[in-house]
Write a sequence for this structure.
């Protein structure tokens, strides 16, 4: 099973191919063949790109996934945040876009993922961002979605 994590930071997962600064997500196409990975995981990385580049990255993830493979996207959304926290998420962390649950869903749809196969999920063992900011703050700001390639 081929498991890819993009933007891993210190959350290196056993059994995964963990990429951080060593994989330049600005340079497309990504250096993986078509239908290569079973799972792609990106936590608090995709919001660092503009919406148009985020869509291109999702196109690449779909290309790289095997049929039946899963993309897991965990990223901050602003609709549940107060003004101060929302502005901090928007301007304080080098983010290239401000996203909502609806905008992420539609970017995944535009990348070719079936609308019926895009779902919200809860926190999983592989998720690590909560360790840095605590569960309460992570639950407030982080949306977790999975999309399957068919």
């Amino acid at each position: 099973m081929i498991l890819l994590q993009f933007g891993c930071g210190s959350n290196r997962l056993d059994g995964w191919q963990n990429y951080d600064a060593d994989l330049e997500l600005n340079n497309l196409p990504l250096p993986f063949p078509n239908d290569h990975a079973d799972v792609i995981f990106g936590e608090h990385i995709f919001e660092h790109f503009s919406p148009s580049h985020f869509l291109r990255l999702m196109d690449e993830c779909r290309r790289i996934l095997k049929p039946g493979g899963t993309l897991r996207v965990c990223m901050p959304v602003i609709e549940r945040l107060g003004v101060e926290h929302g502005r901090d998420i928007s301007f304080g962390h080098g983010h290239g876009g401000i996203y909502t649950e609806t905008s992420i869903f539609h970017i995944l749809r535009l990348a070719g993922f079936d609308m019926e196969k895009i779902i919200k999920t809860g926190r999983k063992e592989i998720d690590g961002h909560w360790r840095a900011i605590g569960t309460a703050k992570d639950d407030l700001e982080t949306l977790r979605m999975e999309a399957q390639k068919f």
